[in-house]
Known about the structure:
The complex is a heterodimer.
Chain A: E1 4-17, E2 20-26, E3 39-42, E4 54-57, E5 60-62, E6 67-73, H1 77-83, E7 90-97, E8 110-116, H2 121-132, E9 136-143, H3 152-158, E10 161-165, E11 172-173, H4 181-184, E12 189-193, H5 196-209, E13 213-216, E14 232-235, E15 238-241, H6 242-245, E16 248-250
Parallel strand pairs in A: 8-9, 8-12, 9-10, 10-11, 12-13
Antiparallel strand pairs in A: 1-2, 1-7, 2-6, 3-4, 3-7, 5-6, 13-16, 14-15
Chain B: E1 5-7, E2 29-35, E3 48-51, E4 54-57, H1 66-77, E5 83-88, H2 93-104, E6 111-115, H3 126-129, H4 132-145, E7 149-153, H5 161-170, E8 175-178, E9 182-185, E10 187-188, E11 193-194, E12 200-204, H6 209-222, E13 227-230, H7 236-245, E14 249-252, H8 255-258, H9 262-276
Parallel strand pairs in B: 1-2, 1-14, 2-5, 5-6, 6-7, 7-8, 8-13, 13-14
Antiparallel strand pairs in B: 3-4, 4-12, 9-12, 10-11
Helix pairs in contact in B: 2-4, 4-5, 5-6, 6-7, 7-9
Amino acid sequence: MKKYVKDLMVAAVEFPHECYVLLKLTDSEPLPEMLPGQFVEVKVEGSPKTFLRRPISINYVDRENNQLWLLIKKVGEGTQKLAELKVGDKLNLVFPLGNGFSSVQEKGEKVLLVGGGVGVAPLLDYGKYLKDNGASPVFLLGARSKSDLLEQALFKAIAPVYVTTEDGSEGEKGFVTQHTLLEKERFDRISVCGPKPMMMSVARYAKATGTPCEVSLENMMACGLGACLCCVEKTVKGNVCVCKEGPVFDINDLTWNI
Amino acid sequence: MKNPVMTASGTFGYGVEFADFVNLEDIGGIIVKGTTLQPREGNDYPRMVEMASGMLNCVGLQNKGVDYFCEHIYPEIKDIQTNMIVNVSGFSIDDYAECAARINALDNIPAIELNISCPNVKHGGMAFGVTPEGASAVVKAVREVYQKTLIVKLSPNVTSIADIALAVQDAGADAVSLINTIMGMVIDIEKRKPVLSIATGGMSGPAVKPVAVRCVWQVAKAVHIPIVGLGGIMTAEDAIEFFLAGASAIEIGTANFIDPTITVKVANGINDWLDRHGCKSVNEIVGQLDG
């Protein structure tokens, strides 16, 4: 799939929560083909401490409005600067990068999409794709508390949403892997994006139940193109670049101790 | 060469990774990822840490080995119409010579860059590059088996880079390239641990440019073979500094991570600068400092 380096224009800036920003980007020409689970590398201007681009997953591609959405958690100075962008500003992207989540395997397949924190971001686009292509996605989303749950209305418009919060302020109290849904139902496969301990714990559940499972990793990276070999993950095939061979991996290809 | 801009080893893959962004044939030379006799897995993650105006890496020469390169990668890149140069690294003099000999047999590789300066592997690489005797020994051995253009990449992590340059010139190098990364270290103060998996790493990016310019200037006074300058070049103006210090070509490294089209921008920018200053070619400004 062809990659581009391009200035996109900020069409809208939303703050779903004080720690997050949702950037809606657009372009004068139709946005290129992108797959759910791929990511972009954005260039951060005006921050001397931020030297490298920042890898951000694709939250949603709104073809009707020719918009690419990036849901960003404010972590350091780089992401803070991104949250200061205004409508009309330009943002330079290298995209689309990496391999996305698996395409639909068969009509009607039940796919559980598990997201934690800002890791829910790529699942919105993926859930929409699965639904549009005849699969039956189900979301299981976890957060610290109710106010950390992101884009709930958008998820609910696509498929059933189950929620856990660590403080019990919404949905079931606890972690995603403790949700009663997992005891009651079985799925054809699972896709996960979130903090590594959460992904490992879902991977353990998947392995125990014999359910195929893929996870989206976010190792620190520089080039995003498979050139610098910095973001490697140990796999059964040796060290591979998360940016190029991933970010989505089948758990059986990883060397996680699960 | 079409222009004096090349890509630094380890920052541009095998070139093909950047083919969506630039016409590879508009780049003067592409120096591909460091290649060793045996396949190498490289160091553990994390291998990279960002800093103001630069980064540190400890990739550790991950590559699939020279045989894989010759059989699988060379066919993919051999018809790219520019100077495709292989960076060669090793852990013993025999390693270097054997690896160089195999690449000597590849018709469309006009040169190798001998890496005697990698700071990220134990018992090798830089061990040869830190003394004139070590550098001389490895270059002599490679010179015996390698007939095409031999560029030797030098480390700044030495007391006198000019002495090393002189030694490799005397041992038969056709050119030197400098600088490789500067050894550094970053600590995570909350964990009280180094950030990088092997504690130290090689620093690159605009922060190292003045060190690189100084090294080129010192080496230019010591040797008569051509110098390829690199270290933190982000713009055409940065490249001009290297030419004035005494380099006749340059490599762009870390900047490729920030802008995948930077090579062509710098090449065009150098021409614009030369035009504005009434110069017909880079050769007119190489080492031309006033005073």
